[in-house]
Amino acid sequence: MPLPHIRQLKPELNGTLNSRGSPLSGTRIQFCAKGLVPENCEQFKETITDEQGLFHFNGESELEFFAWLIGDPLYAYGIKVSYDSRELEWSDGGIGYSPDHVILHCEITEQLLCTSEP
Hints:
By secondary structure, the protein is an all-beta fold. The protein has strands at 2-10, 12-19, 22-23, 28-35, 41-48, 54-57, 60-66, 74-83, 86-95, 101-108, 112-117. The protein is elongated. The two termini are 30 Å apart.
């Protein structure tokens, strides 16, 4: 059905990155800005954590001209962290529309573990 609207594709992300409870500064983080994560990502954004392990990515949205009448859309978002010669990935998603904003608290152990809050 024709119904122009702005659809949030990826949330704005604010987060912290730690290892063994200590902030990781100067660590490269990539955010899948377009496509599914992580293996089918078409476009990555990249940032470096600050002294307190903080990072930020703007959200992604697009103008859609038609509204879903049957079923719900899917969304997915995730990050890739380059740490200690390894690429660690974390992702989340669901049915419905992407949240506008997500706060991530991430800890590197043997893998990348993140908890999120709206």
